[in-house]
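Friendly challenge for the regulars: who can give me the structure tokens for this chain first? No prize, just bragging rights.
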Amino acid sequence: MKKLMVILGIMMLMNLCIISTASAFIGIENLNMLSIYEDSWVLDRFKPLEPGELDVGEYRISTNFGRIINDDYNDYNSNLNNYYIGFDTAFENDWYLNSSYNFTPYYQHSSQGDRSRYDNINLMLTRSFNDDNQFYCGYSRIKNKEKEYDSGEFSHIKKDTNDLFFIGAEFYGSFLD
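First reply, four minutes later:
Bragging rights claimed.
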């Protein structure tokens, strides 16, 4: 039992490090996307359903169109649109699929004419067993493209792609049993 706890602790630490590093590297905060997720009524539409919320053959599709209006400190108006679609389903008694696609088309983010776009694909497969215990695996791809301009003339395109593969488990229990 102690070995299992040590292994789970190490796995959780590794997941935390990978996710934190990826988030810091990608710089999602720069897109001001986090402000979309602050309200709980909005968050309920974005987060995947938990296993057991859908019966076999049922599904949930959630869509969202957002307009983010940002007045920068340099008084340049960098507004952008954001499109989101999510799909959750239970395809067998204990198997669940969660997927989502988040897309921001090219938008001008500086007075020099630089333009950026962003898209994110998430897939997660979950297997539930023995009450609330779960095993899951997933994939996330985050792509950023930036068209840079110099004095109004196109300079080059900068592309960043980050692929994150993950596998994990979640166990519930009690120390009092």
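Residues 20-32 have pLDDT under 50 and may be disordered. The chain has one domain: 2-170. Your move, everyone else.
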